[in-house]
Amino acid sequence: MSEVQRKENELCIKIDFERNSRNPQRVFNSMSHLISSVEEFHSCLLSSVSAETKSNFLLSDINEGSIKSWLCPQIDGDVTNEQKGRLTSFLTYCTDLVISFISDKNTIESLEVLAKLEDEIATAAEEFNIEEFPNVFSLDRHRLLKGYTELSQSTSDLNSVDQVYLNSRGKTQKINKKFHLTKEDVEAILIEQIEKNTTTETLVIKKADFIGKSMWDFLRNKSTISARITHQEWLDKFHSRQEIVAPGDGLLCDLVTTAYFDKSNNLIDTKYEVILVHKKVDVLNLQQELKYDS
Description:
The protein is of the alpha+beta class. The chain has two domains: about 5-190, no CATH class; about 190-294, CATH 2.40.50. About 35% of the residues lie in helices and about 30% in strands. It has eight helices and ten strands. The chain has helices spanning about 5-10, 25-50, 80-100, 115-125, 140-155, 185-190, 230-240, 285-294; strands at about 10-15, 55-65, 65-75, 165-170, 170-175, 195-205, 215-220, 225-230, 250-260, 265-280. A five-stranded antiparallel sheet has the order 2-3-1-4-5. Strand 9 and strand 10 (about 265-280) form a beta hairpin. The model is unreliable at about 290-294 (pLDDT under 50).
């Protein structure tokens, strides 16, 4: 992508904040959530038209005065530079669409509300000639709504004087601070069916939670999952160093897997919870035993 194209597709997120006001961290927290929301929107948009590519941002500049972050979308994947240019232009154009869509809304109450926005994005994909499989356009509504929850979070801590703007393609639009959407709202909109399954299995620790407020990362069947451990008795022993475990160790435990499905029976989310830790497992010895048994 040429330097001219790069400049044309830059996005500027601007926060006009109240000077000499308390709680200054609110402004930087807001900027973080704003960037995350646009990243989520771009992932959603790109997955609908080009499965083999992904997008990321280059922070091209930060301006003083108001807080301004200039972001340049960048496409990674096995496509030509000409295709990357069209995909980037599509993302920039549709970012305007998803922001303007909520300009007069306080929330989103149903999937039906998104139909008009989805049609506009599908039309844009056709006009930019970027679909891998024309006529089968499908937007990841779950990811789109996750982007809106990040956007909602970005403005929740700002005070009544602070204002937020998006500048792209030479136009500036104010982001609606009254819009509010939580993760719980998204689940209520999307989820039609919930399935729970409890298994006893060995999980390999990738990252432990030493503070007690975060998820643990485990290796499960060669894939990484994040799970909360709710076995309080074992947690108390772990935090008091009566139980010593570290990344690479295994835990034989009872794992609850909760799968969430939408009205079309599509899996939209999976959550994990360790409800009982039986014991620490020597993973190396276990692997050797399995190899010997086979």
